[in-house]
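Blackboard transcription, Thursday session:
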Amino acid sequence: MQLVVGGAYSGKRKLVNEEFSDCQWLSAYENQLLDQWKLINNTADSPIVIEGWEVWIREEWKKAGELESVRKYFESILSEMQQVEKRTQQPVILIMLEMGRGVVPMDKDERAWRDLSGWVLQAAAEKAETVHYCWHGLSRQLK
Amino acid sequence: MLTFISGGARSGKSSFAEKLALESYHKHKGGNLYYVATSLPSDEEMKARIARHRNDRKEEWQTIEAPIHIKESLHDIQKESTVLIDCLTVWLGNRLYIDQADWETIIQEVSGWLQAARGRQLNLYVVSNDINEGMPANARSVAAYIYMLEKLHQHIIASSEEVYQVIAGLPVQWKGD
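(Written on the board underneath:)
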């Protein structure tokens, strides 16, 4: 599993497109649901890019409303993805948004959203074999 | 020669940029040393801040107040001068909210800086802010501002010989080492 992390508009997709051609994308920005990953990953014949995690995280938080369970939900999906990748041998690339570097939000839901996004990002970075950080269109390998 | 410097709030990016510009000015001794100030002194606190900043810089610096138009100044000054623009974030805010410039005007102005730097052998330093790593913006106008700023960063970085990210006063070099 490979992780690309960076702030908004920092060139994350550009980096993925340069490294991998003909990827299959699962994107929250295209209103796709995370649930679709199993079908896509199990049947893929090309690398898979999964992006828009913060959107799915916010939706899951709205549904469940409990930090620990939402965190576990995403951690278990990441573990499963790792397993499936081993079996199918198709690279899985996760694109995640860095959103933890501003002021602490006043709103409780915003705080939960930000916390969960940070935790899921950490879990992904731990499981990933490579981690790239994008900054203003440039990138650096952190792991 | 073009150098881009960015970092978070109070990361020490301005001090680092001033140090780089001053060192390079002493080394090359061409033209003059200019500080392009982009802030509009909107209230007493801002005025005091600008005055404090100006006092902190040694007398070698000449200050150009340019909250909106910078390109013209870069063409008027002596060739081979060293110029520090501090900062792009404030300047873009001024262009968008004070003179309501469109994207075409903005990107042309910034391209004009880069052309002036190349054509007139200026030693140009541009300072900006990392503001794209916080919570996603709710307001469309804020998201658009961040998007444009990122576009400008990438545009400037593509032409830069050296690029630094400043963290806690320490430079991390992204380009040119």
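Lecturer's comment: Residues 19 and 131 of chain B are 23 Å apart (CA to CA).
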